[in-house]
Amino acid sequence: MSEEKNKAAESLKAITESKELADRMGKIKHKIMVLSGKGGVGKSTVAANIAVTLALEGEKVGLLDTDFHGPSIPTLLNLEGRHPESDGKTILPIDFSEGLKVMSIGFLLQNKDDAVIWRGPMKMKVIKQLLTEVNWGDLDYLIIDFPPGTGDEPLSVAQLIPGMDGAVIVTTPQNLSLNDVKKCINFCRQLNVPVLGVVENMSGLVCPNCKMIINVFKTGGGEKMAEEMGVPFLGKIPIDPQIVEASDNGEPFVYHYGKTEAAKAFAGVVQPLLQMEGKAESGIKTVSSKEEKKEGMHKIAIPVVEGHLSAHFGHCEEFSIFDVDLENKKIIGQEKAPSPPHEPGLLPRWLAEKGVNVIIAGGMGTQAQQLFAESGITVSVGASADDPEKVIISYMNNALELGGNTCDH
Q1: HSE on the CB side for 324, CA within 13 Å?
Q2: What is the rounded distance in angstroms from the CA atom of residue 405 to the CA atom of residue 409?
Q3: What are the residue ranges of CATH 3.40.50.300 in the chain?
């Protein structure tokens, strides 16, 4: 097969996968990320109990565990050793209970103690496969659990699902955790992912004898931080020894201990999720006018040298990054960012972290184009060395002329 045919086949595959992904996600009304800036804050426990609480409210819920290096959901729900089935075309999530389906990378490991040693591009590929090939069917909510921090996994999902409803961010009350959570909030803002609210976990210890709450890690830090950062505060979950016992036994805490203060706190956390606007009919999500405007927004990067589009993106002095409203053909804002060191694989990740989803260049090698695609960034090559703003205007008006790739290696 010729090189041109290879490129055509790759392009067709990308378009097909994109349509499959859009069709799959279009059947899910609300997609919610559960994040934490730091490990050990009980994020997976919170994610699992949010999912179960929503299911107990009569909602159809999916729970996706994307923690490649320490998947906890199979343990928390007593699903270790289970493996998903396939209908020949798609992967079928495991039915945990009526109203709750579960998928975890842990189900795909032959041995639960196997170490997953993958770099970013491989993680992106597997996450895309999970989102595209897992047949959730019609859901009211998809709760997505992530490893701690702001690395490849949440970045990949945020880019692959541009219509993300938002993120629930889990912290503990002490400053060590709160400082990292602020970074998590800023990460969401850079990617235009709404912060639905902060949950303060381990907010005091419920004494098993007198039932009084002892502030082991102090309390109120998460609420104060949420106020300072201008995001909602969803509630405090106290430490309860029964949460530990239920988690170790693979029993959903909110189901087995529904009358406890901690279970009532989880019920309070999900109330704003149950009241979310823009609910869909017949599995098709409807959006408000504000959301429609957001769907037309793009971040477009142009490599620049001496004030003009650079013939090769890797040799530029800086990047002009434009915020563009494609629907109304308007430039909303512009940022000039000095180019980072020209190291293999660095530019796609760097631009993705800035929220860029399109790059227009004069030339780019095939391998580099693949790396950008894996980072969720669309590439247009063959643009002439013109003023960046003129290039953007032509792009918005579908009048950008693309010649040959000046760097096809």
Answers
A1: 24
A2: 10
A3: 15-274
End-to-end Cα separation, the chain, in angstroms: 17
What residues form DSSP beta bridges with 144? 33, 64
Reply yes or no on domain 15-274 having CATH 1.10.8.60: no
Q: Taking 80 as the threshold, does the pLDDT of residue 205 lie above it? A: no
For 302, residues 6+ apart whose C-beta sits below 8 A from its C-beta are 309, 319, 320, 321, 322, 359, 360, 361, 388, 391, 392
> What CATH code is assigned to 296-396?
3.30.420.130
Tokens (6 digits) for 89: 């075309």
State whether residue 32 is helix, strand or coil.
strand
Closest by Cα among 102, 128, 65 to 374? 128
Please give the angle made by the CA atoms of 125, 33 and 95, to the nearest 5 degrees: 80
Res. 288: pLDDT tops 50: no
Buried b or exposed e, range 91-108, using 16+ CB within 10 angstroms: bebbebeebbbbbbbbbb
Domain with CATH 3.30.420.130 in the chain: 296-396
* Res 164 pLDDT > 80: yes
For residue 384, what pLDDT is reported?
A: 86
Instruction: Kindly report, residue by residue over 3-45, the tens digit of the pLDDT.
Output: 655 554 554 455 445 678 888 888 899 999 898 877 778 889 9
CA distance 162 to 294: 9
Task: Tell me how far apart the alpha carbons of residues 53 and 155 are, in angstroms, rounded to a whole number.
Answer: 27
- The closest of 326, 281, 321, 329 to 303, measured between CA atoms, is 321
**Cα separations (Å) of 158 from 28, 33, 146, 165, 188?**
15, 9, 12, 10, 9
Cα three-residue angle 212-218-219, rounded to 5 degrees: 80
pLDDT for position 353: 80
Does residue 324 contact residue 388 with C-beta atoms inside 8 Å? no
Orientation angle between helical segments 346-353 and 366-374, nearest 10 degrees:
30
Q: How far is CA 149 from CA 41, 154, 187, in A?
A: 12, 8, 10
CA 379 to CA 373: how far, in whole Å? 8
